[in-house]
Amino acid sequence: MLRQIEFWEDRDRQMGADLETSIILGDQAEEFAAMLSPHVHQPYFGSLKVRVAGREQTLYIGKHGFRDVKGPYSVVSWDSEVGSLFYSQALGWTPRRGSAGVIKRRRQLDIHAKALLRVTDLYDDEQGGDTGGREEVLLRRLQEGSTAGMRDVVETLQPEQNEAMRAPAGVPVIIQGAAGSGKTTIGFHRLAWMTNADRGPHRARPEACMVLMPNRVLATYAARILPELGIERVVVTTPEAWATGLLGLEKLEVTDRTLSLLLTDRDNTRRALAWRKAKLLGDARMLDVVRTHLWNRFNAALRSQRLSEVVELRGREPQPFTLEEADLAAMLRDVFAADPLEGYRTGMRRAIEAEALSRLRPTEAEEASVLRQLTTPLTSLLGRVFASTTPITEARRLLGSPESLAASGLLTEREMALLSTDPLSGIPTPRRAHADVTELPLMLAVQAFTGGIGRLDGRTLEVFDHVVLDEAQDYSPLLYALLGRATRPGHITALGDLNQGMHGYKGPSSWEAVQAQLPGAEVRTLGRTYRSTRQITDLGARIAATYNRAAAVQGVDRDGAEVQRYTAPAGSPHGELPLLAQAVKEAQQAGHTNIAIVTRRGVDADRLAEALREFDTDAQPITTQEHRFQGGLVILPVNLAKGLEFSAAIVASANAETYDESTEYERRLLYVSASRALHWLALVSVGDLHPLVA
Predict the structure, then answer these.
(1) Is the pLDDT at 551 greater than 70, yes or no?
(2) Residue 177 counted as an annotated binding residue
């Protein structure tokens, strides 16, 4: 590898036929050298001894493929078809070309700083087959502490994870997995797999891919893994940031008043009403409700409209070009039927321009002149028809008009009445321009139909090559329908768990509702959780069993410390502060550095962070999406902790007063709080602990 890097970095060897070619070749060689350099310290992590056509050979598996052109020291990339054999249980394979092969041995090689530290056989034909080494390597890795970023699991992909990650390219995939099953990491590795040249026509360009994460804290935390997987320039953002960027409203404040109500209001009737309204706003039928509304709006705007212009053509008399109202209405009907990616306004412009060229029949050299002469009157006409239709105003106009809601015939009287209620009236709104997260899919639908939806490449709108959705149980069916329009067919990977959704008021009731929006989508289930010790996993299972309708999740048999419980009598003068400080101290004494105190609400995190300083405990509060998790001791609400993992976690106020035992949503919150820890978990309460964790 070093010899190859030296060759690439030697500009004198990168010579072309002329100076320009030499510069290009030299720049390319330097780029290759930069890509290979990080892998010199750990060139491979596994090996396969295989027998092909009667001959045995050893293949090395690494994070970066390397071909030794002058010798035998080549490395196969983990994301290649051959690399997959390292992770699977299969003992034979038939390549697309060549002879069938048989696996004789799988071996894990731990290398650090160019030194071989450990060899573990995972399978050895001569030693009776499966050695149990795969589980040994996994347990060793799981014993490691958490970091301030998501784990790279290339070296320890388990067979079921590998199978889900390599689901056929060009097919939408929904990966269902419990907390700690590795679904998010697998989604990232699938994205890297999609960029491999082996994917052929389904290969994705990293710069044309997008990953949507539930909040910016998690987006920052997760994005660090992508460069380690060899892919740069992937957009990692939140659905809200992507939506406001597409709408051109980056400064718009996005609220989630439904979540605020669910976290603060004790009135179950009001909470249920808010939940049902939010679910209806994200219903896939709303796409056709919006389409019908826009059809009626644009047809009404076309009444009495006409386009008339005299066009100058070289060597001919000036030619009149006129479109009457009936002509325009027919064109609008064709545009709606074609449903162009770039939206109806651009589609209408192109239809009129095509009609003008068809009627006037200019020479190829004159076409640009004709279109230029039509620019002003055409822009004026489109402005009269489309200009007043902005996503925010039009979505709200639709919701405020019973006639518009009824026009499609898709909503019942009861549903239309529900959309006219305001269960969130007691939740304050920002003073500046804002939109609620439950309104955004409707606004995006207006944008999709009027101005288009997808990826902007300069001024060109195109579909994404591949999109990965994290916490997919929190995306509405309407948003899935819109993302389906914005992405190549079959190129969405959704990662989630219906049983731990904290934002079920936005999400689907079942994966079947998602499959209806992503035709042909396959559901892959990860049946094992890898994050936590047996003690923590068992506690989480006890909570989840009260609402989890899925099959029981199997944990890794990794023993650890017993779950710690800290309680004080009701009315204690300092409340739970001394208990939290004691728990932090004992977690640190146990050797943990990445520690989280998880609260139910953001205001609790702010309040406790300030108060704990008097108990010699300095925890960094993370209470908004602008904060970044950089490791150490943090205190954050459960809605921002979701998706993160810590070496140790402390659940504050783990009692029935904070997490209402009678409400399924509250039990889900408690489950998320208690499932953040890898190795050490503490439960703190003034008064009795919650019955499910006592």
Answers:
(1) no
(2) yes
CA distance 457 to 464: 10
Residue 63 labelled as part of a binding site: no
Q: DSSP string of 214-250? A: SSHHHHHHHHTHHHHTT----EEE-HHHHHHHHHT-T
Q: Tell me the pLDDT tens digit for each residue of 200-241.
A: 999 999 999 999 998 887 788 777 788 878 888 899 999 999
Do the Cβ atoms of 476 and 201 come closer than 8 Å? no
**E strand segments, 53-136:** 55-62, 75-77, 92-93, 101-112, 115-124, 129-130
Which residues are paired to 307 by β-bridges?
323
423 Rama sector, left if φ>0, alpha if ψ -120 to 50, beta otherwise: alpha
Residue 145: predicted pLDDT = 66
What's the rounded Cα separation, in Å, for the pair 141 and 421? Answer: 52
Give the HSE-up count for residue 22: Cα atoms under 13 Å, Cβ half-sphere. Answer: 10
Q: How far apart are CA 340 and CA 344, in angstroms?
A: 7
The reported pLDDT for the residue numbered 550 is 53
Phi, psi of 105 (to 5 degrees): -160, 140
Check if the beta carbon of residue 307 is closer than 8 Å to that of residue 323: yes
Q: Are strands 115-124 and 434-436 parallel, antiparallel or unpaired?
A: unpaired
| CATH code 3.40.50.300 region(s) in the chain | 161-262+455-529, 534-686
SS3 421: coil
With cut-offs at 50, 70 and 90, classify the pLDDT of residue 93: confident
**Do 564 and 681 contact (CB within 8 A), yes or no?**
yes
At 428, list the tokens.
Answer: 């304050």
Percent of the chain with pLDDT over 90: 61
Residue 182 in marked binding region:
yes
Q: Is 54 annotated as a binding residue?
A: no
Q: Is 131 annotated as a binding residue?
A: no
Q: Which helix (H) or strand (E) holds 623?
A: none
CA distances from 22 to 9, 11, 12, 30, 489 (A): 13, 8, 9, 12, 40
The SS3 assignment for 6 reads helix
Which CATH architecture best describes the domain 534-686? 3-Layer(aba) Sandwich (3.40)
Asked whether residue 179 is marked as a ligand-binding residue, the answer is yes
What mean pLDDT is reported for the chain? 90
Distance CA 561, CA 632 (A): 20
> Does the annotation flag 178 for ligand binding?
yes
Nearest to 33 by CA among 8, 1, 12, 10: 8
Residue 451 annotated as binding site: no
pTM of the model: 0.84
Which is more confidently placed, 483 or 541? 483
CB 522 within 8 A of CB 174: yes
Tokens of 115: 């030194």
For 161-262+455-529, CATH gives: 3.40.50.300
